[in-house]
């Protein structure tokens, strides 16, 4: 068998984000932000959200829809003011379900079917038509906003393909579906990105929050621009930072990109988000197997795209057993590699860790870029609100982020806190809707 440890060392080098590189990416990110904000060419879309941070006093019972990719969640949220938000009902539904024989994510499904499905689910949690309910809608895709309730989908990301939604006003699509489904007493008042929701939820109780990030199936960040050029007022800006492209791809990243739904787009997201990390590891491992560095054959399931998931990486990374039993079971079940030696199991775990660490360090570099842009001398406190399964569940991920922030900000890092904004993307939609009907 060829020299596996040499190959691992090479991989480590290719996937490393050194302290210098963190700094370099942060500065490039800052430059891309400035360009995008001024409407100059930039990989950052810098989409105005037409939302400012809340006061914490917003109140009411609000329906929230959280639509971000694999599932749609509908919530009934009670905002009591004083920064308190409580979920009083919640349901979650997959957008595709083989047994139930539906899939709203493909090009053969229409936007109308998709929004009828969502409206039907909202109907299930709305008690009666006794009164009108405001609704906030988290729609986690790049949208051109003209107002808080006017959001046009620019293009799908995260491999969704539903027909007839790109270029449409998403708030209107949902409102029409609500009416078609007999729940016209629910009024869609705000459409926001999930990063905005995450920021708003944290800002509702902590006014130092000025960055919101999702590290989940997808990846993206928004921030509070202190003086937005459009309004000369503070405004949240959805950067669509998953599309940031000033980062060097390895040949594995290029391979993943070429076979993806939108080659060339979402470069950072494809290197950093949960939808792709498992696939990246699968591509690396199949190349090691093909080149004889690991025992096995490139046959099913190793050659099935996206068969290895990011949860599988979590399982492997969390394995501290002496025989690496969990790694072995992923190797057998998800990669079809039955006869790996311990050194090869260690290699699998190590590759999963390299890919995950790189993800966190790239994300941290972009956060530093935002901080450099809004507060170069770090005079104020900043809180970065994060939601998403990768951040919440991947062993070590939060620590890698914190460590990279320390490296890139130095002593200034004392001014920056990173906090989980649990369910932020959904609750934030309720807060956004509440700021509309009780404007401050
Ligand atoms: C994708 C979407 C973006 C969203 C992110 C996280 O990057 O384009 O709008 O915020 O996923 O869900």
From TrEMBL:
<keyword id="KW-0808">Transferase</keyword>
<feature type="domain" description="Hexokinase N-terminal">
    <location>
        <begin position="10"/>
        <end position="204"/>
    </location>
</feature>
<keyword id="KW-0547">Nucleotide-binding</keyword>
<feature type="domain" description="Hexokinase C-terminal">
    <location>
        <begin position="211"/>
        <end position="434"/>
    </location>
</feature>
<dbReference type="Pfam" id="PF03727">
    <property type="entry name" value="Hexokinase_2"/>
</dbReference>
<comment type="pathway">
    <text>Carbohydrate metabolism.</text>
</comment>
<protein>
    <recommendedName>
        <fullName>Hexokinase</fullName>
    </recommendedName>
</protein>
<comment type="similarity">
    <text>Belongs to the hexokinase family.</text>
</comment>
<comment type="pathway">
    <text>Carbohydrate degradation.</text>
</comment>
<dbReference type="InterPro" id="IPR001312">
    <property type="entry name" value="Hexokinase"/>
</dbReference>
<keyword id="KW-0324">Glycolysis</keyword>
<dbReference type="InterPro" id="IPR043129">
    <property type="entry name" value="ATPase_NBD"/>
</dbReference>
<dbReference type="Pfam" id="PF00349">
    <property type="entry name" value="Hexokinase_1"/>
</dbReference>
<dbReference type="InterPro" id="IPR022672">
    <property type="entry name" value="Hexokinase_N"/>
</dbReference>
<dbReference type="InterPro" id="IPR022673">
    <property type="entry name" value="Hexokinase_C"/>
</dbReference>
<keyword id="KW-0418">Kinase</keyword>
<keyword id="KW-0067">ATP-binding</keyword>
């Amino acid at each position: 068998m060829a020299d596996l440890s040499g190959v691992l060392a090479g991989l480590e080098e290719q996937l490393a984000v050194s302290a210098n590189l963190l700094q370099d990416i942060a500065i490039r990110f800052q430059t891309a932000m400035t360009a995008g904000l001024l409407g100059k060419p930039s990989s950052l879309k810098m989409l105005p959200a037409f939302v400012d941070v809340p006061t914490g006093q917003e109140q009411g019972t609000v329906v929230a829809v959280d639509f971000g990719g694999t599932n749609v969640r509908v919530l009934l949220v009670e905002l009591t003011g004083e920064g308190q938000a409580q979920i009083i009902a919640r349901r979650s539904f997959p957008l595709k379900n083989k047994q139930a024989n539906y899939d709203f994510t493909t090009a053969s499904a229409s936007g109308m079917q998709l929004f009828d499905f969502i409206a039907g689910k909202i109907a299930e949690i709305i008690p009666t038509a006794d009164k009108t309910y405001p609704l906030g809608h988290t729609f986690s895709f790049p949208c051109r906003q003209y107002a808080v309730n006017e959001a046009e989908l620019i293009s799908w990301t995260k491999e969704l393909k539903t027909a007839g939604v790109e270029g449409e006003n998403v708030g209107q699509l949902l409102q029409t579906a609500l009416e078609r489904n007999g729940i016209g007493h629910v009024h869609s008042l705000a459409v926001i990105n999930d990063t905005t929701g995450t920021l708003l939820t944290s800002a509702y109780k902590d006014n130092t929050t000025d960055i919101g990030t999702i590290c989940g199936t997808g990846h993206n960040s928004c921030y509070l621009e202190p003086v937005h050029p459009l309004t000369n007022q503070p405004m949240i800006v959805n950067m669509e930072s998953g599309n940031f492209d000033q980062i060097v791809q390895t040949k594995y990243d290029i391979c993943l990109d070429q076979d993806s739904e939108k080659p060339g787009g979402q470069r950072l997201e494809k290197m950093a988000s949960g939808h792709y990390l498992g696939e990246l590891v699968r591509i690396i491992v199949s190349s090691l197997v093909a080149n004889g560095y690991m025992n096995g054959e490139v046959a099913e399931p190793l050659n099935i795209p996206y068969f290895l998931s990011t949860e599988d990486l979590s399982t492997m990374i969390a394995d501290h057993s002496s025989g690496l039993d969990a790694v072995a079971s992923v190797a057998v079940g998800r990669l079809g590699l039955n006869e790996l030696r311990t050194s090869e199991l260690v290699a699998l775990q190590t590759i999963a860790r390299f890919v995950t660490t790189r993800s966190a360090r790239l994300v941290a570099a972009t956060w530093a870029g935002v901080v450099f842009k809004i507060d170069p001398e770090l005079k104020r406190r900043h809180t970065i609100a994060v939601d998403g399964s990768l951040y919440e569940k991947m062993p070590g991920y939060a620590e890698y982020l914190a460590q990279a922030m320390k490296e890139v900000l130095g002593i200034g890092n004392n001014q920056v806190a990173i906090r989980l904004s649990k369910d932020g993307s959904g609750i934030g939609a309720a807060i956004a809707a509440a700021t509309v009907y009780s404007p401050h």
